[in-house]
Design brief:
The complex is a heterodimer of chains A (about 500) and B (about 100). Chain A has helices at about 1-15, 15-35, 40-60, 85-105, 105-110, 115-135, 140-155, 165-195, 200-210, 215-230, 240-245, 250-275, 285, 295-315, 320-345, 345-375, 390, 395-405, 415-425, 430-455, 470-490, 490-500. Chain A has about 500 residues and is mainly α.
């Protein structure tokens, strides 16, 4: 028995290579940082190589026919590798690679005092934590990787520690984050007490075969959803988002708004889908939430989604700081994506995946352009953007396209994303939800176009000229072209998402 | 009277509520962090009590060991952040650290 489980673990390591590559990157960065402090490009280069190697291994890992890291007694392990986790890992790697590229030209990061090595070391541990989050099927591993992501991001949010607002952002982030993860842990402990196991599949087995008191189950479910909801900035747990996004260095804001949100969504979908779905039912649409039938979970999530997008959009209307406005807009986008989660069948999840893939390009692009302009102007206030469209035409037009795509107007990719999401809602007969989503998009048009209006329709006397380097031009184009292209030719994403909805065991 | 599972669950529920109360009402950042420690430890009591009285094996104890280690790591990072806040603001009162409001 003992030998068997050791052998099993060694075998599992063959499938665990992308994560091992990230761990190796982490250690190599730590060591190199000790000896070559002076060099400016070495550490980012090593992290880029690490992420690319990890991506290569990810693509060429064979499909697994079972669970990873199972011990002898049960065949159910800690970790699964399936198309669903593959999709999110690709997404996370893309976001991380872009973040490293952004950091190279970011004034904030390069002029931050202290040691820049820590920045890249923490980014790689951040990526590792998110990788684990997308694949875990065990509550303990889920909590541990959740904390790995959180602890790295608390430090990263306050990385420019001599800037007052950055220090404040990291304090607020750690207080909110620690309470959320503590509450989630309490929920996990109740679930463990009810079922006697931490494995999601076994929990589902116990829940469907035994009569379990519904009150503690509901409390545990709410606490766990709340903990994950903090990560994706769902409505009652979103208070940290604007402050942290405004205070953190903009490269970190970008990665928090895309990658850590993606990992949170992956975890939310996987854990709730595995734990609470009744496998035996034939009709998935009506049985999706069957086990928790005492309580209307999908209506709760629908209410939270409406709250999230409405609060995000309404608060964004009043913002004068561009970074803070984008923070509220990212809350609103989390709300749109949550509506797909309400359906929870393959259509809904596919819509979320498509949305995320497109959101990656348009949101990172918007943050990158804001970063480039803010580095030059020394301000993110919307007033200072007056007339910029004529003084820096390329950046002005790019920002306009990203913002239009975030609104969801054709022919940009944002339109395709929203089309599939609302289409899935209508197909599942959640018409009122789709209507509210569309109304919210209309509200968002106002604050996105306010920026565009400021840039192009008003004159200003401020001297501004921007000499974009070749590198920055290429990065902007590599985000801009997908945003436009996927608006017209979106078949590949749809196919990719279609293949990726398959969660292990379904 | 023998001490049973319910006593431990009541204890942990009280600790959890006290922790949330401390986070919501205390103004000193260090006291807020102490509230967070209470929350984590209330979950620990739950894990160990369930593992002991439910005969679930050693999983509960192992989880609580992991949580203790994580709580230490979190406290280290949180204290470093609070120290940095003190350097910048010369106070650790969370109500006075409000530069990021519109």
């Amino acid at each position: 028995m003992e030998n068997n489980s050791i052998q099993n673990i060694l075998e599992s390591l063959n499938y665990f290579t992308p994560e091992l590559a990230l761990m190796l990157t982490f250690f190599v960065l730590l060591l190199v940082d000790l000896f070559f402090r002076k060099s400016k490009y070495l550490l980012p280069a090593i992290s880029l190589v690490g992420f690319i190697v990890s991506g290569y291994l990810l693509v060429y890992t064979p499909d697994v026919k079972g669970f990873l890291f199972s011990t002898g007694m049960t065949n159910i392990g800690l970790y699964v590798i399936d198309p669903f986790s593959f999709f999110f890992k690709i997404l996370i790697l893309l976001a991380m690679i872009y973040t490293i590229l952004f950091s190279l030209s970011s004034k904030e990061i390069n002029e931050a005092g202290g040691n820049r090595g820590e920045y890249y070391v923490l980014l790689s541990s951040f990526a590792l934590g998110m990788f684990l989050l997308t694949s875990t099927i065990d509550l303990l591993l889920m909590y541990l990787s959740f904390e790995l992501v959180s602890l790295s991001s608390y430090i990263l949010a306050g990385f420019t520690r001599n800037v007052k607002r950055s220090a404040e952002a990291s304090l607020k982030y750690i207080i909110f984050g620690a309470v959320a993860s503590g509450a989630m842990l309490y929920g996990i402990s109740i679930l463990y007490g009810l079922t006697g196991t931490t494995n999601l599949y076994l929990i589902n087995f116990y829940l469907s075969n035994q009569n379990i008191e519904s009150l503690p189950l509901v409390i545990a479910g709410l606490l766990i959803i709340g903990g994950i909801g903090f990560k994706i900035s769902m409505a009652p747990f979103h208070f940290w988002t604007p402050d942290v996004y405004e205070g953190a260095p903009i490269t970190i804001t970008a990665v928090l708004s895309v990658a850590s949100k993606a990992a949170g969504f992956a975890l939310l979908i996987r854990s709730l889908k595995i734990m609470f779905i009744d496998y035996t039912a034939t009709n998935l649409q009506s049985s999706a939430w069957a086990i928790l039938s005492q309580f209307k979970w999908n209506e709760l999530i629908a209410g939270l989604a409406v709250l999230t997008m409405t609060l995000g959009n309404l608060a964004a209307l009043w913002q004068s700081n561009l970074k803070r406005m984008l923070a509220y807009s990212s809350i609103a986008h989390a709300g749109y994506m949550l509506t797909g989660f309400v359906i929870l069948d393959n259509q809904g999840i596919m819509a979320i995946l498509i949305y995320f893939f497109i959101y990656l390009f348009m949101n990172l692009g918007a943050f990158f352009v804001v970063m480039l302009i803010a580095d030059k102007l020394g301000s993110e206030e919307m007033e200072d953007y007056t007339g910029l469209g004529y003084k820096a035409p390329f950046l002005g037009v790019s920002l306009t396209i990203f913002l239009i795509s975030l609104t969801g107007i054709p022919p940009t990719a944002g339109f395709v994303a929203k089309l599939y999401l609302f289409g899935a809602l209508i197909k599942a007969k959640w018409i009122w939800l789709a209507v509210i989503g569309v109304l919210n998009s209309v509200i968002s048009l106002y604050y996105y176009l306010k920026v565009v209006k400021n840039m192009f329709l008003r004159e200003s006397e401020i001297e501004y000229s921007h000499n974009l380097g070749h590198g920055n031009l290429l990065i902007t184009l590599s985000l801009l072209i997908p945003t436009l292209l996927f608006g017209i030719y979106f078949k590949p994403i749809i196919e990719f998402a279609e293949q990726s909805v398959r969660i292990f065991g379904f | 009277m023998t001490v049973g599972l319910n006593h431990f669950l009541a204890l942990s529920a009280v600790l959890f509520s006290l922790g949330i109360y401390a986070v919501l009402t205390r103004k000193n950042a260090i006291q807020v962090l102490m509230g967070i420690e209470l929350i984590l430890n209330s979950a620990n009591i739950n894990f160990i009590a369930f593992a002991h009285y439910g005969n679930f094996g050693l999983t509960g104890q192992v989880i609580s060991l992991f949580v203790i280690i994580l709580a230490a790591a979190e406290a280290a990072i949180a204290l470093a952040i609070v120290l940095n806040i003190y350097k910048q603001y010369s106070t650790v009162n969370v109500d006075e650290i409000d530069g990021l409001k519109e």
